[in-house]
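# nightly structure sweep
# worker-07 picked up a monomer target from the shared queue
# config: single-sequence mode, recycle default, output format = structure tokens
# input follows
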Amino acid sequence: MTTTTTATTPRLFTPSRVLGAIAQLALVGVLWAVTFGLIIGLFATGIGLLFALGVGVLLLLAVVYALYGFAWIETARVDGLYGFGIAPLRPRTSGRPGFTGWLRTVWAQFTDGSMWRGIASAAVATVLGWATLSLISVAASGAAMAFAPLLRGDEDTVRLQGTGFDVPIAFAVLVGILATLAALAGLVGIAALHGVLTRVILVPSREAQLAEQARTSQAQRVGAVRAADVERTRIERDLHDGVQPRLVSVGMTLGLAQQKIDSDPEAARALIAEAHTSTKAAITELRQLARGIHTSVLDDRGLDAALSALAARSPVAVVLDVRVTQRCSRQAEAAVYFVIAETLTNAAKHSRAAECRVVVRQREGGVLWARIEDNGVGGATIVPGGGLDGLSNRVLGVGGTFRLDSPVGGPTSVEVSVPCAF
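# output follows
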């Protein structure tokens, strides 16, 4: 079943939005001009010091993130004013580990179109802001001019501030009223122009939205396929390296017992006991393998109970903090559960951690978020075909995001967000 949501277009020209736009433009006309000046100065300094022991490179990197912060504030300002429903800017990431991965992340951030649209909107707001300040000055001067004959009866002319024109005192009232009305009309026009331009700049067209949805769907399909491949490879490896040789050993042991059952009953009895023990171990491994594919507790009692059972079985001490108010889709809960399960397994096997902290929250907007952090040695990386690669693609397959932070020396943290109603 497909549900289509139709968004209503917000009204740009309500009195409250017009007044809000005028007030904001008057403020950001100054603030954004100063901000642009600081960023340009930082960029120029970085270029000048480009070969000075890497100081210039650090300044240029700071410029990239200053632009991102600037664009984030501008996007949030416009969305708060007009209610366009613009998604907040999010930092870009290459998803690759190491120094080269970080450089790719910086480049991805620098080439992010959403960031530059926010910068373009800020530039437009700066220009319109200065025009707004000029018209406010004219409106205030015109209002004062309308009373000039009462206050300046002995003067022949009065100057209309912001224009440089001197008006004879006999026409001061008429010119003052007309100037005030014209300036107020100009302010309303600038506010309307600001709303139109920011919508054009920041709100994607229908075609762009469809293209982005298609790219997201393609990425999810690719992630789901890769996750399935990694999972199948893991199951094959566990069967080949674990259960299969154990069952072969059971068969060989029972064969030996069969040969000795008449000549040496005691030895045959010992071999049967050994085969029995190995069989129980194989059953335990099969149960663990099945639990890695599907956990019935998750379906029956929900994520909180499933994670409590997982923490109880973990060889590493787990501090569990789960606050989930309602059930999410099976795919979303399963993705978060298996990320936590695999991360705890990695902490026990590779990280040499003594403790793990697991935090799960249901955030606004229908997002299931989890963070797992251990106090181990760190140094974990996403290797193609490895367990972490399978987890990241599994999360991507349900439309979520996966982030690994594991510097050498620790700690290692994994953060995952998935839509609840996928």
